[in-house]
Give the backbone structure.
Amino acid sequence: MTDKAQTKQRIKELRAEIERHNQLYYINAAPEITDREYDQLLQTLDELEKRFPEFGSATSPTQRVGGAPLDRFDSVAHAVPMMSLSNTYSKEELVEFDRRIRKLVPEEVFNYILEPKIDGVAISLRYENGELVRAVTRGDGTTGDDVTSNVRTIQSIPLRLADMMPPAVLEVRGEIYMNTTGFAKLNERRQETGKEPFANPRNACAGSLKLLDPSEVAQRPLDAIFYATGQLDGISFETHEQMLQTLKSYGLRITPNYWLNQKIEELLDQLDTLESMRHEFPFEMDGGVIKVNERRLYEELGYTAKSPRWAVAYKYEPEQAETTLHAISIQVGRTGVLTPVAELEPVQLAGSTVKRATLHNEDEIRRKDIRIGDKVIIEKAGEIIPAIVKVITEKRTGAEIDFSMPTACPVCGSEVEKREGEVALRCINMQCPAQVKSWLTHFASRGAMDINGLGESLVEQLVDSGLVKNPAELYSLKKVEVLGLERMGEKSADNLIKGIEESKHRPFDKILFGLGIRHVGKGAASTLANEFKNMDALMAADLQKLETIRDIGPIAGKSVVEYFQAVETRTVINQIRAAGVNLEQPDNGETDELDGLTFVLTGSMETMTRDEAGDKIKARGGKVSGSVSKKTSYLVAGESAGSKLTKAENLGVTILNEEQLVALLGSDEELEDQKAGQLGFGF
Ligand code: IVH
């Protein structure tokens, strides 16, 4: 083979390898490699493609975010219309649905299949010869918007089907959704940057898909699940279940649970089971969809003008509660944004006691005409954050009081301002104790500098006593000063000083994240740290340079440049540097003593969580997998280990208990020492 042919082959192999890992990660939830190893594969491929542009391909995993922002979306006609479902809230109507079907096909024996109804945005994907060629929204059912470049950024959607012989045409339909935790984080970030938060995950998802700049969409936590087909050429399915399983084998995500049943009565019970699982799904589920499983019956059962006769949606009542709004308090966040918070009479809602609800901003309070003393209906937006849906105006007594936002910061008394284009009010004082406190708490948090012994209440004391005004000042704290704080013992003071001292050796990405630069989350911090290697190089980078980096969009890029231009920032960084804090990214922050070994963790452990154990294994070069196979090197069995343990025993895999695992891992200090040795500090 010539060199060129070899490169071409290597590129092909890398793509297949990356796609395989995508499937293991997103579909099977059983990754075989670490995120870092995955990034390395992607980077190698990216470099090869840049050197040999003639081997480029639109379906390469490097090409998720490609192309310039659009002016508008094109309208596209659906090859097969996208129908909706008839809805019901009553089980009697489901029994009626079953009767109707049996009347239409009296001789047939068939099953029903029950799936969750996902509350997201309907989408149709078209794969031609295995390649994703188009993604179109539902629109009016006949034509929709071409949102292909946005949908391509969703990591769990394969750009190419995982099959050597894919059908000529496969149109799959499903739901794009924003996962509930991602939604909560996104809204928090929006609030911090003075933007209007989204009302619920579905709106956030729809809003994201309508963005014209795919690089912005790529930052949104979107995901998808598929449950139907459109045009098919070169493939057919006997049953819905078979269709789902085929999609899964292609690398398309399907519902995590479904139930098959011949009798409608049993399905009614299963609908209750499904409802009880409502909060376990990463998406918002607003009901169950019941479909006839046998696709051969579809034509015979037919369609009404809008929906198929072989399917129906049973909707659950939204979970709401009535309570009293006692007061509205004001929270001041890390960027100084003032957020009104509803203080409620405690009430049970969706499995927890709710005492507070977010009110987002003054506009929202006006829009909903919320007054102190009102009886209100609350609901959980995105299943997590309670929000006030509406006021029960009929229950007003006349004693309710109008609310208006304060004209000064409730924490430091400084002026508040509304920036152009923003809805939020902000405290303009960068030294506002509220801002400093959340900044320090973030700086000391586990994902950032992980300062042992520095929690929220100590941060509170340090700031209130005037000892610390920014993260840099932590490093000049003296033990005597700490001892002067209320209820501070000798041991705690020592611990804090030790914790601060130890944090000096964290890799560069930790402090970068800890600084709390707007739009720079954990992932972006790690990308920047790995790219620039140290603080000086990053501070010298201009927007143009930053924008060339994968996963760093123009918004984050601009924010980084602005951050490092500010005089205050430069002063803090100089102080941090002078204190001897590490500002370099180690080349290889990981050791390789467990290289080549695959671990499966099962059951619960006493001294750490499974995730923590996994991180420790990975930090030493080992792999962690979700399922036991002949390739498993060790099964770590914690308390009440189940089927994985049995399987491991049957396969003759070596089994470790927690103590043995701890011994194998060695101490974290040992790992730190090794790393320090590699980097040349400490000795
Ligand atoms: S089947 C021809 N299955 O609900 C039937 N739809 O109210 C196509 N939806 O437009 C739909 N989860 O956006 C189906 N498991 C599921 C679903 C589901 C959510 C949405 C879909 C549809 C709407 C109908």
About this structure: The domain at 3-65 is CATH 1.10.287.610 (Helix Hairpins). Residues 672-683 have pLDDT under 50 and may be disordered. The two ends are 50 Å apart (CA to CA).
